[in-house]
Amino acid sequence: MTQDVSLTGAALLIDALQANGLNNMYSVVGIPVTDFARLAELKGMKFYEFRREDAAVDAAAAAGFLTGKPGVALTVSAPGFLNGLTALAEATKNCFPMIMISGSSDRHIIDLDRGDYEGLDQYNVAKPLCKAAYRVDRAEDMGLAVARAVRTAMSGRPGGVYLDLPAATVADTVAQKSDAHIYEVVDPAPKQLPSDDAIDRAVELLKNAKHPAIILGKGSAYARSEAEVRELVTKTGIPFLPMSMAKGVVPDDSPSSAASARSFTLGQADVVLLIGARLNWMLSNGEAPLFNEDAKFVQVDIDATEFDSNRKIDAPLQGDITSVLQKLNAALEKADVKAPQDWLDSIKNACEANNEKFAKRIAASEAKPTLGFYSAIEPINNLMQKHPDTYIVSEGANTLDIGRNLIGMQKPRHRLDTGTWA
Known about the structure:
- This protein is of the alpha/beta class.
- Helix content is about 40%, strand content about 15%.
- The strands form three sheets. The protein has a six-stranded parallel β-sheet with strand order 2-1-3-4-6-5, sandwiched between helices.
- About 45% of the residues are buried.
């Protein structure tokens, strides 16, 4: 009797992915997942082929950041898995939701170390380098496996999830499709709101601040909180500084941007509101001289373990950014919190002085007969201003630093930079 392909583990996995709105796959195919990839295309998934697995997994991670749904990557076993593992770890460190699926050897061979083609205990290798790893041993568990992967990748701090798919599971079957329990995950990233006491602490600090400042991290872009962030900036007038992948959450040409006076603003700020930004190496771990030693911090983050990781957080606000800001904005408006005008004037003066120096530096670069960073990047900025829907991907220290200052972003989630793990 011929096997019903629609009841195999491979088909059920595809059905489970599609049931959760995951219709794109990024991959380098080969044994043992070639037939799985062919079937995915036949069932309507869009398939993007790459030359190396790490590039495919990076693409899936970027898709996760841009769409808010886990990107799906597919690799072959052992060497292909290991090539993709670097990017899986990067996705986890950079908080991008994605799922990496790899074919693997049969357990009875691997567990007794009997030797197999491209044999490797991939599940246990992956576990310490991603948010979670799951091995699927039965076709009937495909629905549950995808549900677990989706919720894990998206809930709390997003990250990478590994699904280990032994060859036997790909070929395994169920008697009927309902046996695989395929369903769409309900509310995979539930809203979380801070307590009234937590909001009151934050409002009190910001109300009494003489030199308040806001730092926007890429978490604010991922959270799609631009409406709430813009309301906060507009109503309070508090100057903001965007991290590179948060550029565009508030347009760079906003009068409240302190980007041209970054060092001055951070060094003088007495209360700093962190929104989806971590006090890691990119912010000197919150230490002096970048920050005032006496500065107080208000931090909005989905993960409570991030609080006090480098500096004392005087007003922690745990929750998803959109929900937190909706509650915080209402409280700030009620308390009539406004940034002091003398502080705004001093930042404006510092921005104007630095902008004048920057303009001279650009002009000097343009006058040189050789091509430098400024003269190379300026046309890209002109393009971005004419076509703000364009996506820009940056890598390399000078390109990143100069591009961050020179290229203005008007829309969120249109800039992809290397992160903590490149």
